Amino acid sequence: MVSAAKRPSRAGRRSNGTMPMLKANSASSTAFGASCKPSKPMVVNWVNPYPPPSVKLKKDLRRAIHTAIKEISDDLEGDYQLNTAVAELMKLSNALGSADCYTSGVYSEGIQTLLTLLAPFAPHISEELWQQLGGTDSIHRQPWPKADPTALVADEITLVIQVMGKTRGAIQVPATASQAELEEAAKQSDIGQRYLAGKTIKKVIVVPGKLVNFVLAS
């Protein structure tokens, strides 16, 4: 155990609480920082905590943004459908919360759109958040957003796989896939391999864009 007399004084400690480094040569009167200068400049590999988002991620987020615009705009026309409008706001909020692209323009578009769509339902908090984002004018003076039809087009769809009318799972397939391609994708999927192995397929019912149902021979 080190005695109290040999412990370094408070003055000998660094300001950040760590112990000072020993000198490289105790016989030298030169300070450690001056005698041990590196011969080459230090190279620091900085890792960006926000890597560039993928094209698909940005497309998916933009589709969520413009889907919310379309659905909420429809809900506020004619007979108000406030419950479904709030549900769409929650969907957009969740999409933004799970999107790992905070520095992209699409994310900024999503935040501004969310606040604009939220303004009729929660005017005070929307205004406060808008000002915190740097808005120079009231959020209630902003134009209502318009849905971009091109952003609503999906590259992929969710295809439900059924066996004897019972849902066994779902897969992602290209939105432009033909009926034959949907059937083949369902057969070759892990779900199809699991439930169709060793079975005889009697009939295949394909509902384009929705599901594939395999009817098995008894």
In short:
This protein is α+β, with helices and mostly antiparallel strands and 218 residues long.
Can you characterise this structure?
The chain is α+β, with helices and mostly antiparallel strands and 218 residues long. It folds into two domains: 55-150, Isoleucyl-tRNA Synthetase, Domain 1 (Orthogonal Bundle); 156-216, Ubiquitin-like (UB roll) (Roll). Helix content is 38%, strand content 14%. The chain has helices spanning 32-35, 55-75, 82-98, 105-118, 123-132, 179-188, 190-196; strands at residues 156-163, 166-174, 201-207, 211-216. The chain has a four-stranded mixed sheet with strand order 2-1-4-3, with helices on one face. Helix 2 (55-75) packs antiparallel against helix 3 (82-98) and helix 3 (82-98) packs antiparallel against helix 4. The chain is elongated and about 70 Å long. Residues 1-6 and 8-48 have low confidence and may be disordered.
